[in-house]
Prior knowledge:
Distance between the termini: 38 Å
Keywords: Repeat
Shape: globular
Domain DOMON: 177-281
Number of helices: 0
Number of domains: 2
Organism: Drosophila grimshawi (Hawaiian fruit fly)
Largest sheet: 5 strands, antiparallel
Protein name: GH17978
Strand content: 35-45%
Helix content: under 10%
Domain DM13: 1-28, 40-144
Amino acid sequence: MGKRIKDIRWLSVWCRRFTVDFGEVFIPPGIDVPKPRVLPEFRRLAHGLRSSNISVLDAKTFYIPNLHYDGAGPDAYFWVGNGSEPNIMGIKVPNEVGSLDPLRGYQGEDIEIQLPGSLTVYDIDWLAVWCVEYRHNFGHVFIPKDLDVPPALGQTKITTTTTPRPVYSNCREILPNRLQVKWELQGEYLQIELFGRITEDQYMAFGLSGANGRPQMAQSDVVVAFYDTNARVFRAEDYFISDLSQCDGQRGVCPDERIGARNDVIVVSGDRKNGVTSIRV
């Protein structure tokens, strides 16, 4: 069709056969429609990180032109979160090819990255390049609160009942009428979806036993999924249970990142309807 919202004055449901207008809506002149927003460049703090001005193309997509980074950070990622400065309570963002491997070096490349899962630019305060191992901020840009950018594809508020849910080959009810888990191996990745009758301040967890052939919490590898009531997003974190005690930074029920490992879980989607929370990772 090739038209934009500014090119039209009205939208109607029209019967051409009987030339009858069934209903219409008028478009105000000079309407201010959402559009991409240009932000400053990355702050230049470490490892040669710099860029040209960064653009927010839509509610989930950043365009980073002329990106430079020496690639020397041992555990660096695109990182988003909340607060007045980048901090450890952030979320990894896949790189331009959708990978969560530590960032390689960039020599003046133009790239696009997309926020994971249901996360949008309205949920975060900054975008940074952050080293998880050393908790070091290489550079960041702040996200204004008055953004008015287009919704991302599939991110409009209107949903339909025709969107198919993933088909899983495995399903198990862990707690009757309380917790159900479905999973499917897709190549080298494992997709898991948890369904739980939980409140917003509760969590769900599922993982690999610490012993072969029987359930055992000690030495188990667990994913904890929950709804972050502060950031208003669904989250999931890797945990390793070395002992049945509070994490002391070395042993106990510890997030992987606190004991020098990586949080390799990506939240694909999350929803809460009729008292049931579902989180797909």
